[in-house]
Task: structure prediction
Amino acid sequence: MMRRTTVIRLALALLTVGSAGAAPDFASLQVQPYQPPKPAPALALPGLDGKVTRLADLRGKVVLVFFWATW
Result:
């Protein structure tokens, strides 16, 4: 969570931008601007039953992909 002072600084910067027309200096506020999410790459993995599941088949559902290894 962002600290209250950071949120207040960001809000003031955005209010200032509305009147000045310039982009806020996010680096000076120590925050990162929101970047829209990018589409996931095509992914197909076999399940334990041998059936291949493609990420495209799960479109519209919440998917958590968790990779782990024991080497």
